[in-house]
Fold these 3 entries.
Entry 1:
Amino acid sequence: MAALRVLFVDDEEELVSTVVERLDLRGIDATGAMSGEEALTRIEEQPFDVVVLDVRMPGLGGFDVIKRIKQSHPDLEVILLSGHGAKEAAETGLRLGAFDYLQKPVDLEDLIAILHRATGRE
Amino acid sequence: MSVAADTLNENRMRERELRYFGRVLAGQCHELVNALNIAHELCGLHEDTLPRALEGQVGAVEKLGSLARRMQIQIARCHAILRVLSRFAHSVDEPEGTYDAREIVERAVFLAARQARLRQTELQVVLPQGGVPLVDYNPFRLQQAIHEGIELLLEGVAQGRRITASLTPDPLGAEVKLESGDPLLCNEAAVGRLAELTALVQAAGGEVRETPEDGGRLVFLIPYGRRDATSPDSDTVGRGGATGGC
């Protein structure tokens, strides 16, 4: 089976590079993006199975990005990430079409389990 | 003004201070969480790398060292935030007294940096070499005034621009100038907030000396100094005031 292709989007560069490296070590083909704008560009350039998206970012925020993704790539699954105490954000994200929602800090094994569920690879 | 009106104004001021305190605290909590999230992932990667180092894989031991240094950077980031946050929290209780304006301006800009980053705006602070003592001042309210001035400018600033907070000694104490390359938003809410900012600065013993629009640039000049100043220039305080910027 081909490796899962994941786009991980967060404005903290160090977080992105570390998570991408950890996913790669687990056989997942992970790519990082540091902004909503960069994520949309990447999605146009190469195919992904899942996008993992931070809600709060400078410029285009997670909700703006998910709206655009669902318009241009309705089948592309999105998992939202956010900080503490953001239940409303989770509900908004799910309403906008997110597959699931995780609160930071994320346990990597939990994230991978959701990535597999999102792509039917359980 | 009646006692009832004074009490009402004081209550409004307290509510506003509390809202400001909450905004700063929430923002800095997010910054701390960001740093801790990174540290969490770096620890995870450290754990991932350890078996490879034990197996003697080339570069794995060096990788562990590099990860430890990257964790230290995030720990230092947390300490820097907590140091400023602690000073900020104590400033609520600090009595009016003599303070170095440089420290207050630097702290206020640090605490507003997250909001600026989310608006994709760079915040720059320009401080003089020597100390700028402020006598009989309330440090909390000066921080609040600078922060709210920056927030006001952020609403109108274009993406990718810069806001500069500069401090210069003034015959009456100090002058804090907040500048952006773009004019203040010209709506009812912004004008109302500028008036509130003026009131806040006055409550802290200063004045919004002028708010000129100079070729599309908005400038706040906020002099702070001795309330009992006997300088020949002291009559300049109280002149002018916020003009609205529209």
Note: The longest strand of chain A covers residues 77-82.
Entry 2:
Amino acid sequence: MTHVPISVTVDGALYEAEVEPRSLLVHFLREDIGRVGTVVGCDTSNCGTCTVLLNGRSVKSCSVLAVQANGANVLTIQGLAEGDGNWHPVQQAFKECHGLQCGYCTPGMVMSAVDLLQENPSPSEEEIREGLEGCLCRCTGYHNIVKSVQFAAEMMGGK
Amino acid sequence: MTETMDVTGSAIGRPLRRKEDARLLHGQTNWTDNIQLAGTLHMAVLRSPMAHAKIAHIDVSPALERPHVVAAFSAKELGELNGAVPCVWPVTDDIQMPPFHALAVDKVRHVGDCVAVVIANTKYAAADALDAIDVDYEPLPAVIDMEAALKQGSVAVHDAADGSLGTNRCYDFPLKPTGDGSFEAAVKAAGDDAVVVKRRFINQRIIAGFMEPRAVVASPMGMSNEMTVWSATQIPHVLRVLLALVTGLPENTLRIVAPDVGGGFGGKLQLYREEVLAVQIARHLGRTVKWVETRSEDMVSSHHGRDQIQDIQIAATKDGKLIGMKVDLLANMGAYLQIITPGIPLLGMFMFPAIYKMDAYEFSCTGVFTNTTPTDAIRGAGRPEATYAIERIMDELAAELGMDPLKLREMNWIKNTEFPYTTVAGLAYDSGNYEAATERALELFGYDELRAEQEQRRASGDPVQLGLGISTFTEMCGLAPSRTLGALKYVAGGWEHCTIRALPTGKIELITGTSPHGQGHETAWSQIASSILGVPVDDIEVVHGDTGRAPYGMDTYGSRSLAVGGQAIKKAAERLVEKARIIAAHQLECSPDDLDFIQGEFRVKGDPAKAQPLAAVAFEAFTAHNLPDGVEPTLQAEATVDPNDFSYPHGTHLAAMEVDVETGKVKIRKYVAVDDCGVQVNPLIVEGQVHGGLVCGIAQALYEGVEYDSDGNLLTASLADYLIPSAADLPSFITDRTETPSTTNPLGTKGIGEAGAIASTPAIINGIVDALRPMGVTDVKMPATPENVWRAIQAAQGGAQ
């Protein structure tokens, strides 16, 4: 299959690669450039585990072709907190409120929450639940995920 | 932010934030799919599109012509490497155990059955080449319904014509007391005073739905027999034994690693065919073989759970005293028996009488083969089904007797003064306080106010009716005393192991045989060890999930990790202290009896200035320059503990359900869960386990159900069709705990991982039925979707079904 050259900034670093036109962004991240913090949980764009920020907005990276990310800026869970040992308030809140168990949905859940709080710095419980609807979690029952997002909103000055 | 801080005093009981989280929250993870070894080959699996068919012809060779394809196998090419996948729980002497090979031989028996595999240099090439495989299927009639499967003349999933069973009856397990203990005799003895309620409940089939799909990497080491297998599994230790048995590879050269594992819920308590295939083909080709399932594969090939038809009879006197219970189950095995498929309903056998006193109990279970994906353990495994039936029928009995369902329960449950109590099912409950949990739940719920509102809504004919659902449950966990497992014909023990090493630098290495996949063992196990060794939690490293580093264990399932594994940690830590005491006494020139061990140091009684911290003892044990006679160098201790009994967590769950009688839409207005899991090592983790369990059970009640069409096609074959609830589908919960320590467990702990899943399903359905009972509704099919609720209302009111 013909490959297409793309250049994408991921977590602050520029990557140039040749990809198959059918390659999904999540496969580019995981297999071409080794950003394996972002994971795959389904094949129907239902689970949301692969959520990243594409030019600042959350997308399921399984529903974006790698070629569509050409020239774009992608932020993953691995680049969320700038620099080693740093924590984004949403990451801190998930730890504080026990918003994760196995951790598999966590990259997508955290990135979705980051986007949600960008849009709406002080969301109600219902708005959080609606806002995270695209991400599935089987461990937490969402209770502590909601609390985590509320706590992050507080820390970030939303309320 | 709260930190995982240094600890003085006991670390047990503290809501410490988890050690695991930093890595997981920064994407620094090691899922099996992240493992990329040089030269890896990728496996893709061709699956049957039919529920039942003869493989008239199969030719894998066209796949070999495709780019990057290295090999392709059907059962024929695989030959002797096509190992038989074992079932380790033959529940009766005459159980029918049909052959179950990694690749189907001659016939396929469910949609998703493994037919062939392609091995290629990339996963895309492997997947692309599957459609080059030439298969001619001769379709056979499929049998999906259990009752149809048992009828004379039914299609046999394993046909006698193939030299196989010729029956879909896998086993009949009777527990039939004679004489006075029989249900019939007990009812007869009560004469006119006996009220018998009979119901049929359908506990529908569900999918485990772990978020990380299954994955395996099998890496052989050339001409030696060494093989390392990474697998997204709950059971690396069990897997090692089973893979050795199935493949013939020497067990002592097999290393199994469960790296980060993204949830299991029983679904990864399995030896899967793909694991066998990856190992056998890796060995055959001398190359690393990797397989990662797609979610769509998962839906048809990871084992399903539940799927019982339950015929229940309960008898009581007119004033509500329970007389006895009779349970007749049909349990769907699916097309093949997986690791513990037949045993799952028998775990439920013990739990039908639940917390209630009665004199007669009969149970029977028939395991049935159908052309569906095999079933096996999913969170709760047998106990949710039993608890659903008993808690549902208690409500039905209360309605029949005209009693408040809570009063009926209270009248019949084991009083807190009556423990230990041996139930009619033969279990000895060590402890419990159903009164306390219920009282607290009622307080948090506002039971009386909600009952008043219910009356009001009924009186005003509100289109949204309110119902109150009760579930006063118990469960058995901590699988299990090995002797009990043996008596149940389970081919393994239920012990657990721990080794603790005090390293020369003062750090502690705790090696556990449990294998966490979200449960927070690294944090909780550190807390247990810290409380005994007096070492800060952060100085303890928990090693798990790798048979190379943690060679002994029985892994994580059945709410056993703390209940059994915790005991091993305690014992190993105490042994370590005792060995250290002898060395410390030598160092401090006193008798071991003259030493107190406080906050991680040995102090001479009456002269606390003379002290030796554990780290100094560990260093002395390392240098071994001056050890007392007969004491071996190094400071470590191990313990392998077989629990002397199960433990019995319990609790009271209350659900207030709003039901729109015009549309059938239901909403959880309020959910209160008061659980009693004995001593809590980390209440934060306990709380998380409760939440997750609740949603598993609520999902079965309201959202999830596997559906097949009559030809055996799975209709719920993706996450687009199978509704795993999202945050938007659920409320927040009100939770609390009462604490009645287990008296048979040295830590006083019980399990908590499955409690929520066991308790919540009946609470929800009882709530819905309670809302609709004045309309004549006595049951609602699960999942209680708007359609199913609406149909129940229509049926009760004589409308069209």
Note: DSSP finds five helices and five strands in chain A.
Entry 3:
Amino acid sequence: MAKLDLQGVTKRFGDNVVCRAIDLTIGDGEMVCLIGASGSGKSTLLRCMNLLEPIDDGVILLDGSDIAEPGLDPQPVRQRIGIVFQSFNLFPHMTAVENVMLAPRRVHNRSREALLPEVTELFMRFGLADRMAHYPDQLSGGQQQRVAIVRALAMKPEIMLFDEITSALDPELVGEVLDVLRALREAGMTMVLATHEMGFARELADKVCFLDDGVILEEGPPEQLFTAPKKERTRSFLSRVL
Amino acid sequence: MTQADIDGPDATAPGLTRRQVYEARIRRRSMIVAATSTAAVMLALFLLIPLAPGWEGVKKSFFNADVFSKTFPGLIEAFLLDVAIFAWSAPLIFLLGLLIALCRDARSPALYPLRLFGILYTDIFRGVPVILVIYLIGFGIPGLGLPRPWNSPYIWGTVALVLTYAAYVAEVLRSGIESIHDSQRAAAASLGLGHGDTMRFVILPQAIRRVVPANMNLFIALQKDVALLSFIGPVEIFRQAGVYKSLLANFTPYVGAALIFLAVTVPATRYADYLMTKQARARS
């Protein structure tokens, strides 16, 4: 059974239709990359998946049950699907470790003492052990983004969404964040990425989807989509970014 | 032409760029101009004001050194009451203002009455002059025939100040809450935090910090408005100055009171300005 299954997902902002009846299946432990020009609907689709944006039509099945049903409490769902944003969105008034502990403390009612061992381990795993007591503005962009990933992981999500998480970084900092994604991939995390890192998508994705004007124009394994795209628009997009 | 000719004679000064030499010259010149014009204005004031026909009289009744030294200690003592009223109303104002701001932010339909209350509250208390609120509450509520000490105008006057200033503080806090970018709410929501936790741990700490300078300005204004309570009874500095004025038939105590207020509000204003520039620099 698919971990996350989108059927006919439609999202409008006023008269502007951003996602047009999108179907997408994400298997357990899969890594799916969404590519496409700015404004093609990648980010909105991700934000719909963890209910940050309510969808106008369609269903989203998480382990077979519809999470997009109007009136459903979105909070339990958001605990199961983590998201990392392009602009980090760390809480600037808290240290890195407080950023990470806030949600587990408040939502899971766990104490700082009980959380500290596993949180410390997460920081160590991503090379941030000496940055736990730093405030976000004392960290580099790459470090902030890794803290944001740790913050999402601390809620033990079943799926992780990444919304162009390297787009706001200086080029020399992109590598350290992609390394984190590689490590998560090896650990078997189910992941959906909106990304402009074509090389990375090609190397690690199980499936790549090309979005254009709110529809998935073409999808398939990376070697097929990158080397032999069927649609003209896919070809012209790839020729511009590769 | 050599390079030295182009740069002018000063450019040979050791370790200075042409630009630094030029800026130093401009700075020197503007300082001289500012000092000269200030001196000219001061001199004119000193020479012209005493020429006014009533100057001797004004000097005797407003700037009388004898009266000043006799009344100043009493004024300082009365000022302690102003400080006490300020000290216990300030935290109450902050708490009530915070409550009102949160009322206005209430989202769920069941809490709509709270939201309505918040809106009406700020509309009413920002729309009525402070002195009117002080009269209405300070005379009105003790008029209900409450037993001592609950009929004290000192208590109810302070309550009037708290009610009025809380409305302003609430508006300042609300503007702070609204200034926090939506991405912070999105980040909190994506972690599964509820509305209350998001407000308490993510939005409010940032919002309150951001509006500290604006609130400082309100509290400076409050420090002065404490003097309005004199109209309903408490013998604070303004009323004490009035007593001395009648006793000695001299206005100098008012000047003394003004000096005491300035001694407190000027440093406080400078501090608020300092906080504001610091914040502007941190955000740029």
Note: The radius of gyration of chain A is 18 Å.
